[in-house]
């Protein structure tokens, strides 16, 4: 097993080297995205200096100072997202599997989270959030180089969504690290109870490198609001952003980057690894719905950091994301319980917990982009849609998605992404989007086209699905060739707690 773990890490390093060799060369080393953009924009629009004496007399512009309140809020939000994964997601997933696999799920979540955090600060952050091309960033932040400016004696700053407002770039990097880590952990539920632990580590290294980082770059990387200093440079600044950002797609906190991205990879894994022994013939009853409920509750609390923290500031949009997360989740719980009662005659604790996660997933891309009425509708639709996803759709797909990753995160993510385009409309109570970053002017109700924005959202969903699926297929195939994906039949029957980790969750 140790040899296989070493092989996993070695191949991950090889993948990084290969990516570095194939990356597009930069004309010059870039500074942090926001700071570099501000400098470029300023140089492009500054009036020419008539006399050398005038230039000598001009005082240098003061470096922006991060807002302490925003920074404090981002520290809290980051801690909340960490709680979502460990212990939240770990307990939610752990309670759903059989007791003989409880520790294996906890271990997979715990170690995957740790692995991705390390990879994020080594190279992932650089690939996702530095300037490169429309699909991937560069290596200017490799090993977090340049975060501390020795000459200035200060940390580099990262832009928020307001002109002139910054937070320390290290805080932004930490916040985004938790997003990357929990996304990879979500995938684990699709093939729980049958995958090799070493295979998990190798697959996650490959998929994180070639799917998560590029999708995050495509959806969220841009040059920051201060880069849009004049109309003359606006188009050039937009052209440097990620591919999906350039299309105008709205994703406040990760409907595409996190949920759809992870769900598709999980679905591919469920197919390629195969069904659990006895699936469809034996009962696969959750061993502790109590732990699942505790995990779902921790997820809900932590999700406020996930969604409201994505505003990057302690402002009105953070408050909007907060209330929408509370409302949509509550509506989804009720919708799932109603649907379950109509179908089965009674509502279940598992259904209520699943409904909460469905609402959280669906409101993620919309939380800061829709009004309160829109959040209510999104929650209700998500509750019913995800109930169908784990029942009707799952049967249609004929797949053993162990913990319904695609049925909840895939369906919920798609529902949320598309309905964001509907309820972002100012005519339906939404805030709209910034139509002009030079003046920070919001789109008017008269100029907002629901059909056009839904089409933009749909294209972003399709790009995410295709990209994640292709990378997942290749990553699983490589893992299978190098290590093998699945434990043997004897190990699976005995349980992964003992066979993979030599421990047991419970003693009689």
Quick gist of this model?
By secondary structure, this protein is mainly alpha-helical. The chain has a single domain (68-501), classed as Ammonium transporter AmtB like domains (Ammonium transporter fold, Orthogonal Bundle). It has 18 helices and six strands.
Q: Would you kindly provide a written description of the structure presented here, covering whatever features stand out?
A:
The protein is an all-alpha fold. The chain has one domain (68-501): Orthogonal Bundle (Ammonium transporter fold), CATH 1.10.3430. The chain has 18 helices and six strands. It has helices at 2-22, 33-45, 52-57, 68-96, 102-129, 169-187, 197-220, 231-239, 243-247, 255-273, 289-308, 316-344, 349-363, 372-397, 405-423, 450-482, 489-494, 496-501, and strands at residues 148-149, 154-155, 157-159, 166-168, 434-436, 441-442. The strands form three sheets. Strands 1-2 form a two-stranded antiparallel sheet. A two-stranded antiparallel ribbon has the order 3-4. A two-stranded antiparallel ribbon has the order 5-6. Helix 4 runs parallel beside helix 6 and helix 13 (349-363) packs across helix 15. The two termini are 28 Å apart. The model is unreliable at 1-58 (pLDDT under 50).
